[in-house]
Please model this.
Amino acid sequence: MIEAKGVIKRFGPRTILRGIDMEIADGETLVIIGGSGCGKSTFLKAVIGLHAPTEGYIKVDGLDISKMTDEHDIADYRRRFGYLFQEGALFDSMTVADNITFGLRYLTDIPESKYRGIATECLGLVGLKDVEDFKPSELSGGMKKRVALARAIAAKPAYILYDEPTTGLDPIMSDVINDLILDLQKQLKITSIVVTHDMKSAYKVASRIAMFHEGIVQEIGTPEHFKTTKNPYVRQFVDGLSVGPIKMKLREFDADPAPAHAGKAQA
Amino acid sequence: MIEAIFGSFGRVLLGAAEETGHFAFLVRSTHSWLVRARIEWRQTLVQMGRIGVESMPVAVMTAFFTGMVLALQTGATSKHFFNTPLFLGTVVSFALVMELGPVMTGIVVAGRAGAAIAAELGTMKVTEQIDALYTLGTDPVRYLVIPRLLAFLMVLPLLTVASDFSGILGGYFVAKVKYGVPATVYWHDIVDQMEIRHFVHGFLKTFVFAWVVAMIACFKGVTTRGGAEGVGKSTTAAVVLSMTLILTLDYFATALLNALGIT
Model:
């Protein structure tokens, strides 16, 4: 279980997360939606320990990585996670197989002789074969995402964190990735957090959806709830409307430094 | 107006202090991993190959021509004063072994391998590959910085020795062809005057330069921000800062070695 309590994250003078309280139950897929800069990816990175919360805590199975100092404890914590980066973040200098098995050396005791078989097995789970010896530069965008997903599941994590898994893909490939997320959920019983802008993807894969706005959880509920809620922030985002409270807030923000520009935009 | 000037001056100072602080953290983290972590020898060997092989031709060629010009200038000057070219081997070898060999090789390697490392790590940073290393259970300092630092510390001294020999050969070429100095005279000028401590003086400095180039290149790489433009800026900054620090630290290293009697 992932538990976030009063999570505040500041980068210098900028406050990105302003007090996040959430619980993600085992086996659940929580989708986080929200506009750019609302703190979705920052929260995801705080969960795996790439950013430490300035205030509050995030506990995974009762463990708080920001309090850990022992390398073995940190490795044990990270072993629970797979992380799919927005652009894949595959290592350019390595083959697909080496990318997929990279984490096994540090996260597991699996002997190196078994790496090739594991790479092939993980590629099979994401619907790819015979690409083990390719370099990432030889793959299409969709294939890179699949390989990145294969890398995320190689060490058999209990949790997968997806950072915008369908961004930059065509609609068909996006749906294929959504199906893969659902497949992995069913086959491996993985708990997931998915950060996305893509509402079609959110409705398809989510057990629950949380909407972030300006560093707080604006609304949280099931996909059905999000389809019917009257919350104007949610409605505006979900329906993709240019007019609404989010737009107004953005205009106010833009208006301070450049009033002329804001006036032009309104016209 | 005055407020704006002081404001921007203050911001520059704050930025420099912040950057120095981050560099100090990287240095501490690197040396702490160095003593307690399993070294990635495979990565270190790969980096030694890259740094050494990529830099060798340009380092050796630069030193060869430096040796040639030293011999040319020394020959011309001594001919002007004494009507004969004197001590060409001595001047060329001392200048190269104690100063020009280490400094020029350091600068060449900073421009060649240091830039390549800053660009590589910078690209890894902006494409989240460095974050990916964390999520896959390893520390980027351990996996990326330490192999590069060790590779520099092992390769730069060897490259400098090769450059020293190349420069001395370049000097011999000019001494022989231009001034007709016999081989025995040129080599005796070297071995009669040069002692092990002179070689050690230059050789020890190469470790300082190797550390500086490696740490600056890695630091600029892993702190890159802002896409392709950021990678370009980091690479340029790494080269400029490394070259400046090599020349600055050369003075202090020389002063220290002189104080220790290694001169």
